[in-house]
Amino acid sequence: MYTRYDSQTGTLRRNHLVASKHLNFLSSKNPHSFAVIIRLLEIIHELLVQNTTATKRDIYYKDVQLFGTQHTVDIGIDELACLFQVPRYCLNVTASAKGLVAGELKIIQKDGTILDCSPINYQAMIQA
Questions:
Q1: Which of 8, 9, 67, 94 is the most exposed place for a label (fewest CB within 10 A)?
Q2: Could you tell me the pTM of the whole model?
Q3: Catalytic: 89?
């Protein structure tokens, strides 16, 4: 899937195989989509200011009535990341809160501690 933003028209163009999606932020033809994007921007701004992270699922539950489905949040977050030309993690949004890791891997965590996953049969939960 490929998405690009046209700053002249305010349009996101999403191309997947043959189909295309055009979302015009400058138009009043789809006020719900505009409201979703504004709400997502508000939530992302809060995350960045507070230097915290949230999962896409966490964001969905902040305004279930507006978003309607998890898919709406997923698409909106992807479109905003495209718009700002940054990966999703730069918006302080993660796909899941934690994961399981094992193997020849050392992770330097936010607090500076090193998590060494190298020992045989070692497993650790990684918190977002």
A1: 8
A2: 0.61
A3: no
